[in-house]
From TrEMBL:
PANTHER family: LEUCINE-RICH REPEAT RECEPTOR-LIKE PROTEIN KINASE PXC1, OS01G0711200 PROTEIN
Transmembrane segments: 248-272, 370-390
Protein known as: Protein kinase domain-containing protein
Assigned GO CC terms: membrane
Domain Protein kinase: 329-414
Species annotation: Gossypium klotzschianum
Subcellular localization: Membrane
């Protein structure tokens, strides 16, 4: 009996949080057609079925709130106390937010529809706390700033992401792919940059109306747009404020391009290897000992079995060898040693020259495979192409095309 009273008291007490939240919400919104007339003090939102409100019958907590097409205006601030909401739909009203919408109190939310309102500010904060989110529709509002793609791609159940007709800017950076995403729309924003490969399965209309997006499935090619960091771009356009002779300008441009190339290679490399250096060593210290011809010794000498065939992954432009054994028995010239590993020039039996990088530290095999496959698919004039890699338990070898122009280090520093 006592227990029952306790539970009754407890659940009513909890329920009153929602009750108060709904009433203060009602107080704070402008309701031109008096749609919320059933929301009155003397009744119970769960028992007397308030308009748009659904409760869990046993806990008496509000789990769904659906207020669509009612021309309501005001702030949604007091709804944050409805911490057991699973569905919130405020489609097609005139709600607004004075600052960024904070979603973190709705951790059970599965469906959030805020389309066609007057919400502004940056992308709602706390999105990563909504681990159960299935559908998110923020379209036709005034949100601005970048889309936190990384956080969104980490939501395990997200099926719908509709962000069209806002003012989102920046790139659609994201390497990971939503496995389950089926409905995606970022059209009519101010996004720029390349569309990540995994997104190109969505139709053109998901991306249209963003002046500066390029890549599949859009017609505009990214190939002749250089993805240079803004500062360097600026430098190229306005090399110096002083007038310089064309020759000097050309030289500066050339040096910049080489530097960008080095930076791109280094950054790409660092980012999958070390999540970027923390100690500030940006470039590899090349201790070049050219001329000394050696052989790439197998690291675990006893293991001469031909297991390598299945672990050698080859990409476009790979020729001259079929097995990692072909590389290991060719003569190799040490090109340099660096933070990442040791680099050799290898001439295969057929006379083809490749560069083999033996990586020193290893992450778990599963981690690097995906990255290496992405890198192996990159072909660009300013990026040295990865043509194959060999990833076994004890060894990671990266095989690059050979560039005959000598050492980048000496080209840069003379
Ligand atoms: C509504 O509730 C408040 C307290 O929250 C109370 O002061 C007020 O009298 C109530 N109004 C009605 C009409 O019941
Ligand atoms: C919606 O409300 C605004 C005022 O907030 C009013 O001007 C407009 O006519 C209303 N529209 C409808 C369809 O009720
Ligand atoms: C969002 O709300 C949560 C609590 O509900 C709070 O801890 C957090 O600091 C808020 N975040 C921002 C950016 O205001
Ligand atoms: C994306 O949104 C735009 C604008 O509302 C619409 O025209 C287009 O059909 C939508 N595309 C998809 C794939 O949902
Ligand atoms: C970029 O490529 C497109 C065709 O793909 C071409 O029309 C355009 O002129 C090129 N722009 C530059 C700056 O080369
Ligand atoms: C680099 O080598 C290629 C051919 O291997 C040559 O066409 C090019 O002019 C060289 N560039 C420089 C800067 O030496």
């Amino acid at each position: 009996m006592l227990l029952m009273i306790y539970f009754l008291f407890f659940s009513l007490g909890q329920c009153s949080v929602d009750f108060n939240a709904l009433l203060s919400f009602k107080d704070s919104v402008f309701d031109p057609s008096n749609s919320l007339s059933s929301w009155v003090n003397s009744s119970n939102p769960c028992i007397d079925s308030w308009y748009g409100v659904t409760c869990n019958p046993s806990t008496h907590r509000v789990t769904r709130l659906v207020l669509e097409n009612l021309n309501l205006s005001g702030s949604t601030h007091s709804l944050h106390h409805l911490s057991y909401l699973r569905l919130l739909s405020l489609k097609n009203n005139r709600f607004f937010s004075s600052s960024a919408v904070n979603l973190s109190s709705w951790r059970y939310l599965r469906h959030l529809y805020l389309r066609q309102n007057l919400f502004s500010g940056t992308f709602p904060v706390g999105i990563s706390t909504l681990r159960r989110l299935h559908r998110l529709d923020l379209s036709h509002n005034n949100f601005h700033g970048e889309i936190p793609m990384t956080e969104l791609t980490q939501l395990p159940f997200l099926l719908t992401l509709r962000l069209e007709s806002n003012s989102f800017t920046g790139p659609l950076n994201s390497i990971a792919s939503f496995s389950s995403m089926s409905d995606f729309n970022v059209s009519e924003n101010k996004l720029s940059g390349e569309i990540p490969a995994w997104m190109s399965r969505f139709p053109v209309s998901s991306f249209e109306g963003n002046g500066d997006l390029c890549g599949q499935p859009l017609q505009s090619d990214c190939f002749n747009r250089t993805a240079l960091p803004a500062t360097i771009k600026k430098k190229i356009r306005h090399p110096q404020s002083k007038r310089l002779s064309n020759g000097v300008v050309l030289m500066i441009v050339a040096v910049d391009v080489v530097a960008v190339m080095a930076a791109l290679v280094t950054i790409t490399w660092c980012c999958y290897k070390y999540k970027c250096f923390s100690d500030g060593t940006q470039t590899e210290a090349m201790e070049t000992k050219s001329g000394s011809t050696t052989k790439l010794q197998r690291r675990s000498g006893s293991r001469e079995v031909e297991i390598e065939a299945e672990e050698l992954v080859m990409f476009e432009g790979c020729k001259g060898f079929r097995k990692v054994g072909d590389l290991l028995k060719s003569s190799a010239e040490l090109l340099g040693k660096g933070n990442v590993g040791t680099t050799y020039k290898v001439v295969t039996d057929g006379g083809d020259m490749v560069v083999v990088k033996r990586v020193r530290q290893r992450r778990r095999r599963r981690d690097v495979d995906g990255w290496l496959r992405i890198m192996g698919g990159l072909r660009h004039a300013n990026i040295v192409g990865l043509i194959a890699y060999y990833n076994s338990k004890d060894e990671l070898l990266l095989v690059y095309e050979f560039l005959s122009n000598g050492s980048l280090h000496s080209l840069l520093h003379g």
